[in-house]
């Protein structure tokens, strides 16, 4: 059976509470996200970049159209410009061709009773109000024959049809992709004001960690998180500093946190977040003078997630488990970065259906890797859930297409049941 909490999340999504607020330091995902959103204020500094160098950056100021686009009435296709009123009586009609106008050219006014050969994008001559496409015309030397009466105004792109001078084309906070660059160029913007790059420092913790590619000593494991998190953070809007592996020493961890916080907007740590004697993040944060805002989150995986601040720097402490670290960054890291860069962050959330049932222990909201294995008759994606012990399987991430977002109080789902889907991308 499926049970759901009657609580309503801070994002207005019923059924995604966890009933966990009574547990010491354990808060719901939505409450933790709300805290993170409040803390992640956009950096104030901006810089001006040429249009071609701004891809991936976040607009600091809105872009407005510098002129009407198009700036004149233009032909929407190759054909013949004419005055519709010149076609009197019943057709066919014969008109002499008195001009030829290509894109980028201009011509004098269209004389009554004449047509002008015109090409796509060329300005309409004064006096013309219609363009007949060339396929609807028979050409005989300097004359054209039109068999069917065209509608007045057809095949014309009117001045300002795309943009009117002064209107907002792109809002501040837009993360610029190819479509936005096209719109900015069409608006006449040669340079754009963007937020400066976000300064992020990554710290890895664990004496058992070895870099991939080297032989492992007994008891050691390869450091998955360092390369994985660096890849998740890669992008033109981030300036990432790899602080390396910090040994399992509280003072070393404290010193590394203090040093990183002096130059970074965001410090991301991996590992050391639990409560064992060799897990130094909580004590190191305290000794570094941090204010801790979130200690544990009712999510699976990723319960041991920390959000803190040291001075002006925000600290995101991720679990050492690679799957938990990956999921935690996907759920928390991306919106935190968006908040700090001022980006309008709207992660895709789709509804989907499960290809097979699953059972789970309720109490924490679960983000389980899933594969997109088809599309149902209703058009929804069909997802195959990963195994129950997915948090111990890094290989499952490579096979997954996204995460199923399972409410905290749900104990089972049957094949065909709807579920929220967070696709990777």
CATH level-3 fold name of the largest domain: Molybdenum Cofactor Biosythetic Enzyme, Chain A
Mean pLDDT: 91
Identify the strand order in the major beta sheet. Answer: 8-5-7-6-10-9
Give me the CATH superfamily of the largest domain: MoaB/Mog-like domain
Pfam families: MoCF_biosynth, MoeA_C, MoeA_N
Domain MoaB/Mog: 201-339
Enzyme class: transferase
Family: Belongs to the MoeA family.
Describe it for me?
Mean pLDDT is 91; it is low at 1-17. The protein is α/β, with parallel strands linked by helices and 425 residues long. α1 (29-39) crosses α6. The protein folds into 4 domains: 40-44 and 197-341, Molybdenum Cofactor Biosythetic Enzyme, Chain A, CATH 3.40.980; 47-68 and 165-195, Molybdopterin biosynthesis moea protein, domain 2, CATH 3.90.105; 74-157, Molybdopterin biosynthesis moea protein, domain 3 (Molybdopterin biosynthesis moeA protein, domain 3, Beta Complex); 350-423, MoeA, C-terminal, domain IV (Beta-clip). The radius of gyration is 30 Å and the shape is elongated. It has helices at residues 29-39, 178-186, 224-233, 250-263, 281-287, 322-341, 395-399; strands spanning 26-27, 46-50, 63-64, 74-75, 79-82, 93-101, 115-118, 130-133, 137-140, 143-146, 156-157, 168-170, 191-195, 198-205, 209-210, 221-222, 238-246, 266-270, 291-294, 296-297, 299-300, 306-310, 313-318, 350-354, 358-359, 365-375, 381-385, 402-406, 412-413, 418-423.
């Amino acid at each position: 059976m499926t049970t759901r909490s009657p609580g309503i999340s801070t994002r207005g999504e019923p059924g995604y509470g966890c009933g966990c607020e009574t547990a010491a330091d354990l808060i719901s995902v939505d409450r933790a996200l709300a805290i993170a959103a409040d803390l992640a204020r956009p950096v104030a500094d901006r810089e001006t970049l040429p249009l071609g160098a701004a891809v991936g950056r976040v607009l600091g100021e809105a872009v407005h159209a510098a002129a009407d686009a198009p700036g004149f009435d233009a032909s929407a296709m190759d054909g013949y410009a004419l005055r519709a009123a010149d076609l009197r009586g019943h057709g066919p009609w014969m008109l002499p061709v008195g001009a030829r106008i290509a894109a980028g050219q201009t011509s004098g006014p269209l004389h009554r009773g004449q047509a002008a050969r015109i090409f796509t994008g060329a300005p309409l001559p004064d006096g013309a109000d219609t363009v007949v496409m060339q396929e609807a015309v028979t050409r005989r030397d300097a004359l054209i024959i039109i068999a069917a009466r065209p509608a007045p105004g057809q095949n014309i792109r009117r001045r300002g049809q795309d943009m009117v001078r002064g209107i907002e084309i792109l809002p501040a906070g837009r993360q610029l992709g190819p479509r936005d660059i096209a719109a900015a160029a069409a608006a006449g913007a040669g340079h754009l004001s963007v937020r400066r790059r976000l300064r992020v420092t990554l710290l890895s913790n664990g004496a058992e960690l070895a870099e991939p590619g080297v032989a492992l000593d007994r008891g050691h494991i390869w450091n998955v998180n360092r390369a994985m998190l660096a890849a998740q953070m890669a992008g033109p809007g981030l300036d990432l500093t790899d602080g390396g592996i910090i040994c399992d020493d509280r003072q070393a961890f404290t010193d590394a946190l203090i040093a990183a916080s002096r130059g970074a907007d965001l410090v991301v740590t991996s590992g050391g977040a639990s409560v064992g004697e060799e897990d130094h993040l909580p004590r190191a944060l305290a000794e570094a003078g941090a204010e801790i805002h979130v200690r544990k989150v009712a999510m699976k995986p990723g319960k041991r997630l920390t959000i803190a601040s040291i001075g002006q720097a925000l600290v995101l402490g991720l679990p050492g488990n690679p799957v938990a670290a990956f999921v935690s960054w996907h759920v928390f890291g991306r919106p935190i970065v968006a908040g700090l860069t001022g980006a309008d962050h709207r992660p895709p959330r789709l509804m989907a259906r499960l290809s097979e049932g699953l059972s789970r222990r309720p109490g924490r909201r679960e983000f389980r890797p899933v594969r997109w294995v088809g599309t149902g008759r209703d058009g929804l994606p069909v997802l195959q859930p990963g195994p129950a012990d997915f948090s111990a399987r890094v290989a499952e991430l490579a096979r997954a297409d996204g995460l199923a977002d399972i409410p905290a109080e749900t104990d089972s789902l049957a094949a065909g049941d709807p579920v929220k889907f967070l696709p990777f991308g």
